[in-house]
Specification:
Blueprint lengths: L14 H9 L5 H5 L5 E4 L14 E7 L5 E5 L2 E8 L6 E6 L4 H4 L5 E11 L2 E10 L1 H7 L3 E4 L8 H15 L26 H7 L4 H9 L4 H30 L12 H9 L6 H14 L6 E6 L5 H14 L3 E5 L3 H17 L6 E5 L5 H13 L3 E5 L13 E6 L7 H8 L6 E6 L5 H7 L4 E5 L10 E5 L4 H13 L3 E5 L14 H11 L6 E4 L5 H12 L5 E4 L12 E6 L7 H8 L10 E5 L8 H9 L3 H11 L25 H17 L9 H13 L5
Parallel strand pairs: 5-7, 9-14, 9-15, 10-12, 10-13, 11-12, 13-14, 16-21, 17-19, 17-20, 18-19, 20-21
Antiparallel strand pairs: 1-8, 2-6, 3-4, 4-5, 6-7
Length: 702
């Protein structure tokens, strides 16, 4: 049994593997156990060769028709084999695996599992897994976990390390068993902290079974029960903390009282467009908060392009006019530079060059940084725009009256707290482009009042959408080339960074290389993904924003990005792998200029169950409508594929799929605090300890 939480305490874990795990964010045994799989591979019942479909991941039981052929081409060893009966025109191809010729016997039956493509009139399995009939019987029906990886770290290695970690905490059966039997708990932090009455009321499995079941489920039911319990825990602890924070903030006095200023109304009248009714209402609510007796803590929730930024600028102006400072924090340096330039232009249009706009990011160093810090600590008519640098050591504000956090779900509570809570806490305004249904937003943002901008400006040109299958790609590439020829730019979104044999999905690395061959040579194609360092991501986005890159192949990291009005085409590969809300967020990167924009959704697997989701996104640009439809479409079995929403940075809970679970968590949190507001009852002792650890870990200071 493990008593030391360090990774090196695991017998069988070498120094090299430890360093690779640390690259994925895992430094302790506890973190390894809580590094949940991001995918599961299902070994389905094989189908006959006659039922194999093009473009999907297939498992077929069929006969090897003749001898295995081995040839060399372009420095690679090519292995090919004909499958099934002659009239079925089915083949398999492998690369650099010549040993297969000795293993595969003509006229013997095997199970082949892989992705199929059509080459001329033949369906071809590309690099499929091969099993004997007996071998496949051992894995059929199992769910195999797939973990976050880094270069040099295989999924097989992570599975083995997770098994070691679980064995060090619980007594388990072997990895090859169909399930894991939970045994005796070690002297660790894995005791179940939820009251037994709550678990029984909500039909939640115990924590030990959930942790074992999420990694090595014996079947779908065990997996769903594990997921339900762990998702509930995330939601419950978060909502419990939110409720405690709400109770405190409702009595927090306004340390920076303000007055309504006629200059802000003058600024609204001077805009080159009229605010929508929803924008007017949102700013009116902010204005009332700033002038009230208590501190403002408000969320402005609105679709991409609904006009949240100008509302934030007006709130900043109101703050400056009242003699206080304001700060605007964003997740990336490129976005900070963009807001910095936009704010300067906004105040210049009002004839207020006397208002100092300061840019503070990680790249601001030396004398420039020192002078910026001096101004922040000494002047009042100052707006500071930046990234996490706004909350670094050495930044001392003189009179920070308002903190605005854009794309707020990219920041944890720790960052929000660090910016606003000082001796005199600043007013807080957070912005979110994720159109969460109001009932759900009230639960998840319980510490914030909510303003919804649910109306789009009249000058916005609706995006034209289409849903296609992979065979339409040549047309899409021709369309992208045409738009680039007209001086525009395009995004192509893929769900993965690198190739993974166990997941059927396009990947940015190979895709970008292939796309360069499909487009004219003078079109610059580049790559963006989340594994890049922040500086590299900022450099790529700056080049794209500046027009040096015409086509950007990216993962969903582009979901939060700069405003590039010249980008008019978005092509989303494997669109079936995303939820409606995330597809809509991605689509919001285009349609930001004066030109007609287009979004092409490529359905990669041809599965009929995803048709309705893609049909909805194809015919509607209304984020709030799609968010509500997303709630209706999700079900408890919707577990495979990536987690659909990044909002609030939950590890396993999904605010759309788990909406009902969130409501249950909120009801339980309310009832618990009413009964035992300080968690002092004996039956809540473990929960109180867990809450203390949760608050400490996430930086909540309540």
């Amino acid at each position: 049994m493990v008593r030391n939480d360090e990774l090196q305490s695991l017998k069988g874990l070498g120094e090299k593997t430890q360093k690779l795990l640390e690259k994925t964010g895992v430094h302790t045994v506890t973190e390894l156990i809580h590094q949940y799989p991001r995918e599961y591979v299902s070994y389905a019942v094989p189908v006959p060769a006659s039922q194999v479909k093009e473009g999907s991941l297939e498992t077929v039981e069929t006969v090897l028709r003749g001898k295995v052929n081995v040839s060399a081409r372009g420095g690679k060893t090519i292995v090919t084999a004909a499958l099934g009966e002659p009239d079925q025109k089915l083949e398999a191809i492998w690369y650099n695996t010549p040993y297969l010729r000795a293993l595969l016997k003509p006229r013997c039956k095997y199970v082949f599992r892989g992705k199929t493509v059509r080459k001329r009139e033949t369906l071809v399995f590309e690099h499929p897994e091969v099993f004997t009939i007996d071998e496949y019987a051992l894995v059929q029906g199992r769910l195999l976990p797939v973990y976050p990886l880094t270069k040099g770290l295989s999924n097989k290695t992570v599975r083995r390390m997770v098994k070691l970690a679980l064995d060090s905490v619980f007594i388990t059966e072997s990895e090859n068993s169909p399930g894991i039997q939970v045994g005796r708990l070690s002297e660790s932090s894995f005791a179940d902290y939820l009251p037994e009455s709550m678990r029984e009321r909500l039909s939640l499995t115990d924590l030990k079974r959930a942790l074992c079941g999420i990694h090595f489920p014996g079947g779908m039911e065990e997996l769903l029960q594990a997921k339900k319990r762990l998702a509930f825990d995330e939601l419950f602890l978060f909502i419990l903390a939110i409720r405690i924070m709400k109770g405190k903030s409702e009595t927090e006095q306004n340390a920076y009282p303000m007055e309504r200023m006629w200059e802000t109304r003058q600024a609204i009248d001077a805009l080159p467009y009229r605010l929508t009714k929803a924008q007017e209402n949102a700013f009116g609510e902010i204005e009332t908060d700033l002038c009230s007796h208590t501190r403002m803590a408000r969320l402005v929730q609105g679709d991409v392009g609904s006009g949240k930024t100008i509302i934030a600028f007006l709130a900043i102006y109101q703050t400056i006019l009242n003699g206080y400072q304001a700060a605007l924090m964003v997740p990336t340096e490129v976005l900070a530079v963009q807001h910095y330039e936009d704010l300067k232009a906004f105040f210049r249009s009002l004839g207020r060059e006397d208002i100092e706009i300061i840019l503070l990011t990680g790249s601001v160093k030396g004398t420039v940084r020192r002078k910026a810090l001096e101004k922040i600590s000494s002047q009042t008519m100052v707006v500071v725009v930046g990234t996490h640098a706004l909350i670094q050591e050495g930044v001392e504000y003189r009179e920070l009256g308002l903190a605005v956090i854009d794309e707020q779900h990219r920041f944890g509570v720790r960052q929000r707290h660090a910016l606003t809570f000082r001796e005199r806490p600043a007013h807080l305004l957070v912005m979110s482009a994720t159109p969460i249904p109001r009932t759900l937003a009230l639960i998840l943002y319980g510490d914030l009042d909510i303003s919804a901008i649910d109306e789009m400006p009249k000058n916005r040109i609706p995006i034209k959408n289409c849903v296609v299958n992979p065979s339409w790609r040549p047309n899409a590439y021709a369309f992208i080339a045409k738009q680039v020829g007209l001086g525009h730019q395009a995004y192509v979104i893929c769900p993965m960074v690198e190739e993974n044999d166990e997941i059927e999905a396009e990947n940015v690395t190979d895709y970008a290389a292939a796309l360069r061959l499909q487009l004219p040579e003078d079109i610059c194609v580049d790559v963006l993904h989340g594994r890049m360092k922040a500086k590299e991501k900022d450099r790529i986005m700056a080049r794209f924003s500046g027009g040096e890159i015409q086509v950007l192949v990216s993962t969903t990291v582009i979901e939060v990005g700069v405003n590039v009005p010249n980008a008019v085409v978005m092509m989303i590969e494997n669109a079936e792998r995303f939820g409606l809300a995330q597809l809509h967020q991605l689509r919001g990167r285009v349609g930001r200029g004066q030109d007609q924009s287009y979004c092409i959704f490529v359905q990669g697997n041809g599965a009929s169950e995803t048709d309705k989701r893609l049909e909805l996104i194809g015919r509607s640009n209304d984020g709030f409508f799609l968010a509500n439809e997303d709630l209706k479409l999700r079900g408890p079995g919707d577990f495979f594929g990536v987690r659909q929403s990044g909002e609030l940075m939950f590890q396993i809970a999904d605010i759309y799929r788990d909406a009902d679970l969130a409501k249950s968590a909120a009801a339980e949190a309310d009832a618990l605090l009413k009964e035992d507001p300080f968690l002092e009852a004996p039956e809540h002792k473990r929960l109180a300890g867990q809450m203390e650890a949760f608050l400490s870990r996430d930086g909540w200071e309540l």
